[in-house]
Amino acid sequence: IKAVLSDARFSSDATRPGFPFISEGAQQLSSDRRPSFIRMDDPEHARYRRMLTGEFMIKKVEAMRPEVQRIADELLDRMTEGRSGADLVAEFALPLPSLVICLLLGVPYRDHDFFQECSHVMLRRDSSAEDVAGARDKLRDYLTELTESKRTDPDDGILSRLLARGELSTEEVAMMGVLLLIAGHETTANMTALSVLALLRNPAQLAHLRAHPESVAGAVEELLRYLTIVHGGVTRVATEDVDLGAVRIRAGEGVICMINTANRDGEEFPGGDDLDLTRDARRHLAFGFGIHQCLGQPLARLELQVALNTILGRLPELRLDVPFEEVRFRGEMLIYGVHELPVAW
Fold first, then answer.
1. Quick one: the chain helix, strand, coil %, rounded to 5?
2. Between the CA atoms of 115, 104, 340 and 298, what dihedral angle is there, to the nearest 10 degrees?
3. What is the enclosing helix (H) or strand (E) of 101?
4. Nearest-5° Cα angle at 46, 40 to 50
5. Closest Cα partner for 176 from 206, 144, 208, 213?
6. Which of 118, 235, 236, 338 is an S-S bond match for 139, by CB 3.0 to 4.6 Å?
7. 191: pLDDT confidence band, cut at 50, 70 and 90?
8. Residue 99 in domain
9. Is the pTM of this model over 0.85?
């Protein structure tokens, strides 16, 4: 998988013949006349990505830690006030990254129900092409109108800064906003809820993290490896014949890189089917690999570190409030997770 994702002979361009799609909706998402830059190859991909690289540099993201901590504390205050149980997804795991990405982009959080509804349709494996196109267009129209308003009323968000560069049209900025808005809340929200569930199912690992909260950065890497919320694979198409190990992949053949399987590779991660928070898991592929590696990974790491230490530190009696068999997993979604996580404390 590392070989494929670092080889320019495997294209991310979904308009190329033979490109593999795991669902009708995924094909519709990639057929837009203005595709996301994650569906471009260099040098076009690099031009767009370069405009965002500075926004997610580790030093800049780390400066946000106090603000992310403030948001996490306020959400947990609200969730626990006068109660002994709640849905961790609805009241903590989802609003935390949503609030943060809205703050970063300059998008009003009051509209979060709307864009979460759109992203839910766009990320369902069983959504029809028509439903995906409708949700995408509604979200794009919303962000186009919002972006245009920032020409006369700019703020300190990413959308305003992209506009100020003068390199992109309003529509191009809006499409980058669509990608960042969906990726910025769906991924971290599901990783947070799944991580809490995994820890509750592994009491020894939970006890270790509670006893060593300073080890949360390494724990997050292991949880990212162990859970790997992209279960549908990372897709590419060969642009010429390529020999990969003992297999010849022909030009025009699609390739699906199952990064969740790679992250359980026993040669790379001995005992990889087990959760071990003391493991050095930094070589995992949860954020992809190569030129398309996730741009927002410093922010995702920060949010997960803050979320886990806040939850575990403040709720020492945290437990699952339904039988495990009743937890509804998001097997129908492109981003894996749980629909709800009822917990008590």
1. 55, 10, 35
2. 130
3. helix 95-105
4. 130
5. 144
6. 118
7. very high
8. yes
9. yes
